[in-house]
Structures
1.
Amino acid sequence: MDPMTSLFEPRQVGAMHLASRIVMAPLTRNRAPGSLANARMATYYRQRANPTTGAGLIITEATAISHQGQGYADVPGIWSEAQVASWKQVTDAVHAEGGKIVMQLWHVGRVSHTSLQPGGAAPVAPSAITAKTKTVLLVDGQAKFMDTSAPRALDASELPGIVQDYRHAARNAMAAGFDGVEVHAANGYLIDQFLRSGSNHRSDAYGGSIDNRARFLQEVMQAVVAEIGGDRTGIRLSPVTPANDASDDAPQPLFTHVIKALAPLGLAFVHVIEGSTGGPRDHQQGPAPFDYAALHQTYRAAGGQGAWMVNNGYDLPLANQALAEGADLVAFGRPFIANPDLGARLQQGGPFNTVERATLYGGGEAGYLDYPTLG
Ligand code: 8OZ
């Protein structure tokens, strides 16, 4: 623990040299019609990419690894050649500013709608249990929150194909010029659905015991690391979030197992959402408050050397406290939407623009490209 560490100091993170500890969190914006990246998205990321005024590292909005992995209107993908080509304008723009950017790889599992699935099919999940949550569809061009569709349970024979989809997506992300990837294993999406007991009622090798529920995560991570290297791979976890109807009876032993399994992979970073995603940091699931310090210690004791990235509701004082307590990186979400120059604003202690909720999901340049910078 180094009491002198500040947000504005560089750090080597796997193969990436970051100019600061400030990370732009992944943020879904539903502005990628046809599941392609576009010039507006390149401008949005470029505005936040300069490492002295913006982020030391940008994590993209969640990006679908396959058509089946998609669950919201106008979110981007990374399974096709056209998608790879479309993302190059984004990585070029970020690199032109001297920034670094990794792509978040996403399979939504049951958090989808038949209208978004190949052939109008049911979404897939560990078990045929409908998530009590909403997805975003576009109705007459307007973002509308709609109930998710009833999923079907995946057959074990389908899982190697999905693991291969993650691997292929990681390869595509590197071909598109990204510095690495973050595997989205948080917020009640497919990997988290396997991990957590509320959504995984399987009786085969992928359900029941903690070991079994973590098997799919491990297979995905091993495949991605084999493809692009651990030093370009990160992971996002959210041990107690209730997002998308996620729940578990005993999150501490589950994530203790998960973090021990991740330690030998040589990951660049581990990104942990503390509490309820976008909500209370002290949200509790299971018999006791979740002990994040113990999770971090377990990772280090198991030999894990990746940067420890914390997220959820951070402001400058809380970020400084986290760094003093041993975190390496701090991810900021909504503050980065409203403040393209969040780095500069944190450095001088504000002021901060506030985020406009009506333009978060879908829409045009308003609330996307027009938040003002200082001076
Ligand atoms: C908000 C709206 C849609 C998706 C997540 C990818 O929670 C998301 C997401 C957030 O991780």
2.
Amino acid sequence: MLIDSHAHLDNEKFDPDRDRLIKSLKQSGIELIINPGDDLASSIRAVSLSEEYDNVFAAVGIHPHSAKEMDDSTIDILKSFTNRKKVVAIGEIGLDYHYDNSPRDIQKEKFKEQLDLAKEVDLPVIIHSRDATQDTLEILKEAQNDKLEGVLHCYSGSVEMAMKYIDMGFYISLAGPVTFKNARIPKEVAKAVPMDKLLIETDSPYLTPEPHRGKRNEPVFVRYVAGIIAELRGITFEELATKTAENIKRLFRIE
Ligand code: NI
């Protein structure tokens, strides 16, 4: 059984068939999924899904794209959800200098506030970082204490940077891009990350892996991410599935 550590099943792209899809996951070899929030509304939808379905866990957080929409009450509202049993992380949070949908100073400020929240409520973080490696690393270094744990989701950086995050206690999660033919760096990362620090995900409905590029992404496609990483590392699919599932349950403290 595989775990998809990052799938936005609350996204409207799943409106037509969400219930059927979630109920069929087990049959398709997917034990559970983690649904992160990207704004307040989607965080609330993620919590609802986690309470409706055994195999869905939630994270609550504001994506850097929506950082500018946060006001004085947002952190308190996020915090109010963190005592729910199936809310397992704060995320996704971070920095996105590729799209710059929110001004960078606001992205940084809101990223820090949400890292503080994670430490306060003792939950791991799910981090989105795009074209913002240096600032992400600096902010995490500053925030790091013995308690702060988390994952760099859909990691797209270098092996060298991955090792810096790992040294700070973070996990690295790979998604669909590792299956792309020309994805030289993600393939290097897939081989280099220590086995006990590696997570897998789909980031559904985005970033559909080969051979389904162009279609809507779904949690079952995490098998293609797992397949290519197992091949690259020279281990069996089963071993990769078992180890990544263990890592995901350890990080998100799922029994
Ligand atoms: Ni995401």
3.
Amino acid sequence: MAKIAFIGLGNMGGPMAVNLVKAGHDVTVFDLVETSVQTAVSEGATAAGSAGEAASNAEVIVTMLPAGKHVRSVYTDQGSILDSAPNGSLCIDSSTIDVGTARDVIGVAEQRGKLMVDAPVSGGVAAAQGGTLTFMVGGSDSAFAKAKPILDVMGKNIFHAGDAGAGQAAKICNNMLLGISMIGTCEAFALADKLGLDRQKLFDISSTASGQCWSLTSYCPVPGPVEASPANRDYQPGFAVDMMLKDLRLAQDAAQTSGAVTPLGAQAAAIYSLFSANGHGGLDFSGIIKMLQGDI
Ligand code: NAD
């Protein structure tokens, strides 16, 4: 069993850290929010007073933080993870952040004698609790091989996407596609309603025809056809609009930096941005159909 430091015990990190404890690992935790630390301690983790202190004795350091600036600071600030973690230790950053920061921080970690992967996740809080996350991993073969048994405890599908930053690239490409396909699916239902076409009939036909996609068949944005959809729970998340917006903005930043042409990704970011600005950032992202239909 490994000595693991876990930094960032929010909605996702909290249950992920608990799964590592339950698997028998020796887990030391740190978060800025004391109650989150105490929850992890009540499940068998040990509290540390800072990220650097948690990492000082660790073989593996896992971080689950909000954004790139937090990741850069928690790794590279004086006295923090890269100063204190033992040489040869493995760092796993599972936050969803920009590709540039992921590559930079991994570069610094390697210069300072650590192995490091970016390993963002797909799947929400339920998957974090159930240990069924999908991990998209970027980094060297040796870092991936060392990370895999740890990620297996927290996830069900572990993909080695490529070199440093490739995990973040996979995550934003996937979520840009998801945001676009959800808006397209919502527009199809909005048009069907105007044309008097029964929603269930559109679902039955399109889910076996060329319009088939995950947003339709697994996460249908209208109540009825798919029992598990947030549409059946008044669009409670699920995957919140503001989370989707964050990923769409990361995709647009990456498109601008790399020169990729993504006009529909830009439109999706603008549409979700408007929905969020109207006060609906906490709704599930499939709730965008309500804006397209003029309901909210
Ligand atoms: P969260 O805001 O609930 O948790 C982030 C935690 O990091 C908080 O507890 C915060 O106190 C802590 N933190 C911030 N700065 C810190 C610092 N300097 N030192 C120590 N702790 C610090 O966020 P979350 O929902 O757990 O998401 C975490 C990451 O996972 C994000 O990048 C998010 O985009 C991604 N993600 C979230 C979901 C989801 O459904 N929530 C799904 C997939 C990916």
